[in-house]
Design a protein that fits this description.
By secondary structure, the chain is α+β, with helices and mostly antiparallel strands. The chain contains two helices and two strands; from the N terminus they run H-H-E-E. Strand 1 (54-62) and strand 2 form a beta hairpin. Residues 38-94 form the Reverse transcriptase Ty1/copia-type domain.
Length: 96
Amino acid sequence: MSSNLSDPVSYRQEIKSRNYDQWLHTINKELHTLSKLNVWEILPIPEDTKLVGTTWVLKTKWNELNSILEHKAQLCAQGFSQVQGIDFSKTFEPTG
């Protein structure tokens, strides 16, 4: 069985899934980890500022017997919504 067959493609789809409780637990666990690592800082939003949206990538990890091993959630920034020269001036590529 492929994990793509049962993975929600959006948060909206996730909240309607039969595995909602497990996905919610996984998302809350990821948010707790990000908070613990001080990944972000809450600041006031300056006027005329365009915020970068986010989306959840949700994946199911399967074992060799096609049973669910774990649910994984990753919060991703939607950087494609930014315009160079307006929203940012430099780009960096992650390494390693």
